[in-house]
Write a structure and sequence with these properties.
alpha/beta, 2 domains, about 350 residues, two-stranded antiparallel ribbon, Serine Threonine Protein Phosphatase 5, Tetratricopeptide repeat, Glutaredoxin
């Protein structure tokens, strides 16, 4: 099982400006390589390109954000580490991703990019991973060699900085991994985290059905909702930490239950159940959060069921907790480490039943 303390780190990332000092715990069970998992693998700030000075084209591009549907910068001036040099061809689609060997989230997305290359190869898609580690080419080569088939797509190093400038700087992207989709007309039509909705967009681009205007509108609406949810999370978590009475915090939780996705509800519930000072724990509300998260996933996620079971237990519903935890263990049958942890908690629940 992944480090469960990582889950609350995601909560902390949302409240970083409110001097958060609490611990961290528990990630949702198995992240999917799909459009819904972007939050699980956050981007990290890019290190400066290792070759200076950056060419004039970079400075010009950085002055203003490039608009979508502009011609993609050619992949020239690169040192190719794996695969043949890529030249954009009409009718072909490309995923140009920026990464680095030192970037943890980048390493996490590598298997997915390999999956994308395999899945869409016969449909004319080429995936290219580009690092800016010009002074560490041998390190990049060793890293790629070590990855083997796990990193089964074209890889290059941007030794001049012009490609990074034409994508990352031109579109004002400051964190990696970041991927760009170049359509059959050689234009950039999408950019974002490789584990965001890239696959969905890529499928539409290949089919010629991608509507950039509609996508932009929908994305703006999603981001507006996310900002509201994040604001509520900040207000709620800080309220809990400050020991505000439940009369003040519960209405905020009710809003989150209506709007937040399952993984966020699960994270907050786990934080309340395990990380918060005992005196500030609102167990009834934690149960509501965990129950909604479990319902949203139709009771099919072991990690969420685990949280739900603990919430039931803390609220005195011991038999229900045993039933939920037993099901969680069944769902985690392919994860021995996770099963061991879940079984230990189940033993605790069963022991309480005998008292």
């Amino acid at each position: 099982m992944r480090n469960r303390r990582y889950q609350v780190l995601r909560i902390l990332a949302l409240v970083a400006f409110v001097s958060i000092t609490i611990g961290c715990k528990k990630e949702p069970a198995q992240q999917q390589s799909s459009s819904s998992s972007s939050q699980a693998v956050p981007a990290v700030p890019m290190k400066p390109v290792e070759k200076a000075p950056v060419p004039a084209v970079a400075s010009a591009a950085a002055e203003g954000k490039t608009q979508m549907a502009q011609p993609a910068v050619k992949l020239e001036g690169l040192t190719w580490i794996k695969g043949e040099p890529v030249v954009f061809q009409e009718g072909k689609v490309y995923v140009v991703e920026f990464w680095a060997t030192w970037c943890g989230p980048c390493k996490t997305t590598i298997p997915h990019l390999t999956e994308v290359q395999k899945k869409f190869k016969d449909q004319g898609v080429t995936v290219v991973g580009i690092s800016n580690e010009a002074r560490s080419i041998e390190k990049v080569k060793a890293f790629v060699a070590e990855q083997g088939d796990n990193m089964n797509y074209t890889v290059a190093v941007d030794v001049a900085g012009t490609v990074e400038a034409g994508y990352m700087k031109a579109y004002q992207q400051l964190g990696i991994p970041t991927a760009f989709i170049v359509d059959g007309a050689g234009k950039v039509v999408w950019y974002g985290h490789p584990l965001a909705d890239m696959d969905e967009v890529l499928t539409q681009v290949i089919a010629g059905t991608f509507d950039m205007a509609s996508y932009a509108t929908a994305k703006a609406e999603r981001e507006a909702l996310q900002r509201k949810v994040h604001a509520s999370i900040m207000e709620y978590i800080t309220g809990l930490r400050d020991g505000k009475p439940v009369e003040q915090t519960r209405p905020i939780a009710d809003k989150l239950i209506e709007t937040a996705p399952a993984d966020i509800l699960n994270q907050i519930a786990w934080f309340m159940l395990t990380e918060l000072d005992e005196a500030n724990r609102d167990y009834p509300t934690a149960l509501k959060l965990a129950e909604k998260a479990n319902n949203l996933t139709e009771g099919k996620e072991a990690s969420l069921l685990d949280t739900y079971a603990l919430a039931l237990f803390k609220n005195g519903k011991i038999k229900e907790a045993v039933d939920a935890q037993t099901k969680a263990i069944e769902l985690a049958e392919n994860n021995i480490q996770m099963q061991d942890e879940l079984k230990a908690r189940l033993d605790e629940f069963k022991a309480a039943m005998k008292q």
